[in-house]
Design goal:
Elements: H1 32-36, E1 41-43, H2 44-47, E2 52-53, E3 76-78, H3 79-95, E4 100-105, H4 110-119, H5 125-128, H6 140-143, E5 146-152, H7 177-182, H8 188-202, E6 207-208, E7 215-217, H9 221-227
Parallel strand pairs: 2-4
Antiparallel strand pairs: 1-3, 4-5, 5-7, 6-7
Length: 237
Amino acid sequence: MQQEPEKSSSFRKTQVNTTTSTDNVVGKDSSIDSVLSLTDLVNVQSINPSIFVDLKYSTTDNFMKMKLYERLKTAYLQKDVAERLSKCQAYLSSIDSSLHLLIYDAVRPVSTQAKMWKALDSIPSKERGKYVSNPANKSLHNFGAAVDLTICDSKGKALDMGAQFDEFNEIAYPTMEAHFLSKGLLTQQQINNRKLLRKVMKSQGFRNLPTEWWHFNACSRNDALTKYKILDKEPKL
């Protein structure tokens, strides 16, 4: 979900369409795809339809239990990031042709980021930053340069990772896997599933967040600031 750090207590993000932040140049008849293209964002499934999408924040199946996206219904990323993710899918298919990447969240407007940050205001800012990036600092999600995802089978059933998406407890931390395995709270198969996801994503240079097994960054925040535009909010169409 987040990007450097993001989230807090214990919570959790299907195939879709999205939006960008520059509604000053968007006409009434513009589609979300064309609007997002103004910030160089592309529909991931237009690059590789073998990648599945279950956009959790366009549903109530998330830690806030409410729809956070009004018009975003599928996953959008920067074009070069989407192309790298497509190569990850090709690599996964070469390992097991029945498996697919399943995206839970991709580009996320800063306005949505702010709602998440405020929802966790009972947590001190420094600690909160482990789970949701401070909207003032921006998240790589805001650029379309981070992706939350898992692996699923051909029917869309996600592999068991031992912790739900948006799980705020330490059992979701990749850095704590050995500890929870020794305690019998994670199985070797669950860890192997996480390792497969990391292996596939690492093949194209994506970096896993230490506190979220599902979150992968395409680049650093500094790189994103020089290369990409920020999606401030969902545009009105």
